[in-house]
What we know:
The chain is mainly alpha-helical. The protein has helices spanning 2-16, 24-27, 33-51, 53-59, 66-99; strands spanning 103-105, 110-112.
Amino acid sequence: MTNAGIVVAQIANGYENRTDRASLFRVGLFSNAFLNFGEATAVAIILAIVYWPPAQAFFSTAAIPAWGWAITVAGGVVLLATQEVRKAIVRYARGRNAVHGTHLDPSRRRICD
């Protein structure tokens, strides 16, 4: 189940880190064909490792029960949600800084006048 959790976390990470500020839902969840192919490949590999008997024997794994998948997917959803909240905070802060005449200097990562 740990391997599946890592794969789900990396899938969430891959989709969320496409932009620094824009929401994943504004950019489009399936707008990057290469990323979609890569993530589908990752899912296929982890499913093979977990459910295909020769891979189970080679990797010493067992089938993951439904409750295990529910916890794993919930963890991925939490990662997506926290990144969306972070991006909303960044968008809000940048909007306030533009109104108050300050800007964020990306080279120093601090607010400058």
